[in-house]
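Below is our example:
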Amino acid sequence: MKLSQTTRLVIILLYAALMIAVCRFLFGTWLPPTAEKGLWLYASFAHLLLGTLLLSPYFTKPVGAVSDAAIAALVLLEVTGAVWGLHEAWAIWAWRSICWYYLAVILIGSLAMLLRNSQSIRGKQIAQTTYVLSTHLGDAPLIFSLLFLFALVAFHLENRREFLTLAAMWVVIVPLGVLENLAHLAKDIKETWIKSVRYETICETYARKEPNLLLFRRTGEGLLTFGQVLAMKHSLRDAFHYAMVLDELHLAEERWIRCLEIDGQLVAAAQETLHRATAKSPVPVLPLSAVISQSDIDLAFQQCRVYTRRADLIGLVAPDTNIATLQFELTRADLDIGEGQLVEVLIGTKPVLYQIINGLTQEEILTQKNTYGFARGTAKKIGTWNDNLQRFEHVRWIPKLNEPVLLQQAQQPPAIAAAVGFFPNTSYPLTVNVDQLVTHNTAILGILGAGKTFLALELVERMLLRGIKVIALDLTNQYASELAPYYDAAAEQAKTDALKATGPPGKANMRPNVAEAGSVQVFQALLKLQLTAFMNDQDSRLRIYNPTAFEIWRQDGKLFSGVGSMAQLTPAEITKIVTEVALDLCSTNITDQAKLCLVYEEAHSLIPEWNAVAAAGDKEATNGTAKAILQGRKYGLGCLVVTQRTANVTKTILNQCNTVFALRVFDSTGMEFLRNYIGDDYAGVLSTLEDRHAVAFGRASSCSDPVLIRLNDRNKFLLLNRP
């Protein structure tokens, strides 16, 4: 409990009288003796005036530590000759050690003052360390006790009367603090009998920002922490209001406390305690925990959502928030906020989730708050979770200004077979409509090694489990081994070998009618025969071809002298044949149910953009493939496009992909294409996505807006979905 300034002044006068009496008793004079004999008296007065009772009564600041150490050092320098005159090695050693100690305090305190406005994390850590060291090592009782005890031992040790008397006086003033303890005792007894405690206001209301946001200016040194409840009055006759501490700012050489006004009701006994304790105080703003118990506080605010979930509170809704995007001011600087995390905000009475798309580190948060008074985050609206439908539903409105923003705590994703992935560190799944993946076409885009093929394999396997047939044009030769339970490799190899055998003889098949030359017709006829059987076979669901494995020939032009120019079909041209045959087989009836999906793995080689073709016939071949895909939807035919080079894939087909999974992308063309689908905000995170993370959007997605998800691990998917 603090003593008033008047009380401290009275105690100083009483101590001064005691020291003068001791001086008279020991030396027979009211005036201080010579320098070395009076050193104890100078140290005692400095301790009382500069130490615990007047200038630094409660704690020592770095500037106080520097000034106290400097004064003590100057006093010690005045007795240099006397110390050397003792001709004692221990006295000289002790004198030098204390001088070095004072010098260290001066240097550390000076460094603390120089670094106090550091902006970097490391600078703040060093500044805090030097501050702590200077306030402890430069504590006034310690500084001047060293001086007093040195004088006592060096100049009064041989005179037992002087030594014992001065030692007893030091014990009374410093360790025991007899008069201070008596003053505290008297004050405690007085307050016990008058049953009222006078609390000092620790801050004053400076501004109110509607709704519910309060700004206080610091006026006292009481400890305030995040989540603490303050009790306040707007006038002497007003009832108490309550606010929860959000953060503390250091701006314009002053300290500011930002608080959120909250509603609660103290029980009758707690209310009586609060009113009685502050009856003789000025209009107070004080921590509620200083007056009543924490259990009473928790009981009073148990219905207040922001108080009960204060551990999750990270910020407040900021201006510029719109229907799709949340802007929020961060009130916490003790955490890293990463892209993909979910936050919750009330819109009306509905808890609506948003996904953070712009992460901030602790250092960035601290820097922005100390520079501008706030740090801002951005999140995209996901919707409100429907537990029955296991999907998000869109909410078409915006939250109120200053509405609390709560961080969703990390959770372990549950085992859900239908989930393609989960929102990062949550239990919220993203599922897909497998039929719409096919009928409305799907694209998987991303750089090498980001996880495209594993995602493609998972989507293909979901199609197979759904009973949808799949023809995979695979240049990687991964599909046969990864999808082995659905693929009879030996039987399919025999069919593939039969197709391969139709090709080489065509190199010598030159005809006046170009359409009859080569081996295209024979290859196409056998392919159609095999795929007809495939479509009619209930037990066969997967067919895999590598277009580069076929040697199919066509005649380039008319015969000249009985000889024609022959050219081998490119992968793009073989892709066109397979696609057109697939369309022909599916077009027997119109349906909105998916029947067949064509997978274009390494699509930049199978359906290249016109300016990225490898051979003259590839442009025409790609146009033919695109035309077939455009017509295929009404017959249940669709495609899955997988590529790492978005710029080199025909946009005629990509633009028809109504579902897109965008993994990590660097090239500007790919980002620009995806920007049209997922918007500027999500396009901005594509280059920093981690492996197995994707931005998903489209008709087949369970979310109506673009979302960032963590894709399934291959092993987990297989464990949940393999029959």
